[in-house]
Design brief:
The protein has about 375 residues and is an alpha/beta fold. It has helices spanning about 15-25, 30-45, 55-65, 85-90, 110-125, 140-150, 205-215, 250-280, 315-325, 340-345, 350-360, 370-385, and strands spanning about 50-55, 75, 95-100, 130, 155-160, 165-170, 170, 180-185, 200, 220, 235-240, 285, 295, 300-305, 360-365. Helix 2 (about 30-45) runs parallel beside helix 8 and helix 3 (about 55-65) packs across helix 4. The longest helix is centred in the C-terminal third of the chain and has 32 residues, at about 250-280. The chain binds pyridoxal-5'-phosphate.
């Protein structure tokens, strides 16, 4: 039987047609279709501006740059995330620190954040930027994070790589109601895809302008910003050190088409979650808990082994499921335990809740094209491996 991945893209004939149309047009790199994708994303999220990028890692780097994170500054994030949420600070020459997670949502713990901020204030080591990660698509406690940002004076970049289509207290994630910038990823395992791709949303016109500049080499053709003498229509100026972080129009065409399907994808994922929750009840696993303030995008379906009720280790269960053709995965190895971060001084034991969670977590297949029959296959395999 065909192995079932933990996540995969869902491409329709309409998606394919949209890409082909751009391939036949005059523009294949960043052009009118990117502008359209940006306009439709900002409308969908309810944000003032959206800026596309070649991937979310680049988008996080841009976010840190425009918030002027640099040497001597620190960025804080969750240890339960993909390494990119932390690496963006190192790209800017800034430092990184982590805040342990909440044992129920696996998102950054606001209690731990508050305690750490209070002690950082005493030692003069407050963060300049906080990156809350909406893990598995479940929104963080943004209301309280926003309050703390006002009290302690840091900026907020939401890492919403898992959370396009999610909502928090009635606002779509990406509205930036409680943050400076939100970053999305369109990698094929995420909720909608452009092959590779990312998007930033913001309500701040100053940040929007800087993002557009840095995305494309720091070059401007806007006369009002020139420092030198314009002496021809061909003239442009590089006024900052930027990058080539552009998305192609080929990718943006796929993005526009996928965005139309987003609400269906979210609905489908919600149905799959409800089925899993029901069919796994009674087994020695803890199924995902959702805070009532959020509507999760359900990017991942993570079960945590209930160590008091199962005699099996996570690795035994992981291997047994893999042998059944279920390509389960682990999200995430806590970033601070990676060798590169250990070299920076972090060690096992620094963030015990994230470490305990990781030791017991397994991500089961979760994607919009997962059929009921295949989901039943996953459930039978889980029953077989746990009983
Ligand atoms: C996937 C992911 C990223 C990076 O996204 P890319 O588009 O692959 O660069 C960043 N943060 C989190 C939480 C992710 O899951």
């Amino acid at each position: 039987m065909k192995p079932l991945p933990y996540g995969r893209q869902d491409i329709s004939e309409d998606d394919i047609r949209a890409v082909i149309e751009v391939l036949r047009s005059d523009w294949i790199t960043q052009g009118p279709t990117n502008e359209r994708f940006e306009a439709e994303m900002s409308r969908y999220c309810g944000a003032g501006y959206a800026v596309s990028a070649c991937n979310a890692t680049a988008a996080l780097h841009l976010a840190c740059r425009v918030l002027e994170l640099g040497p001597g500054d620190t960025l804080w994030t969750s240890p339960n995330t993909f390494v990119a949420s932390a690496n963006c600070a190192l790209y800017c020459g800034a430092g990184v620190d982590f805040v342990d997670i909440d044992p129920r949502t696996y998102n950054i713990s606001v209690e731990a954040l508050e305690i750490k901020l209070e002690s950082a204030r005493r030692t003069g080591k407050l963060p300049k930027v906080l990156v809350p990660v909406h893990f598995a698509g479940q929104p963080c406690d943004m209301l309280r994070i926003r309050e703390l940002s006002k009290q302690y004076g840091f900026s907020i970049v939401e890492d919403a790589a898992h959370a396009v289509g999610a909502a928090y207290r009635g606002d779509k994630i990406g509205s930036c109601r409680y943050s400076d910038i939100t970053v999305f990823s369109f990698h094929p395992v995420k909720i909608i895809t452009t092959g590779e791709g990312g998007m930033l949303t913001t309500n701040r016109s100053d940040l929007h302008e800087k993002l557009m500049l840095l995305r494309s080499h720091g070059i401007t053709r806007d006369k009002s910003r020139f420092m030198g003498e314009e002496n021809g229509g061909w003239y442009y100026e590089q006024i900052d050190l930027g990058y080539n972080y552009r998305m192609t129009d080929i990718q943006a065409a796929l993005g526009v088409s996928q965005l139309r399907r987003l609400d269906d994808f979210i609905m489908r994922r919600r149905q799959l979650v409800a089925r899993y929750n029901e069919m796994l009840s009674g087994l020695p696993v803890i199924t995902p808990w959702h805070h009532p303030d959020g509507d999760s995008a359900n990017h991942l379906y993570v079960v945590k082994l209930d160590s008091e009720r199962t005699g099996k280790s996570r690795n035994e269960v992981y291997n047994a499921l893999r042998n059944e053709g279920i390509q389960v995965n682990v999200h995430y190895i806590p970033v601070h335990t990676q060798p590169y971060y250990r070299k920076l001084g972090f060690k096992h034991g620094d963030f015990p809740v994230a470490e305990e969670y990781c030791a017991k977590a397994i991500s089961l297949p979760m994607y919009s094209s997962l059929s009921v029959e295949d989901q039943d296959r996953v459930v039978s395999a889980v029953h077989k491996c746990l009983t």
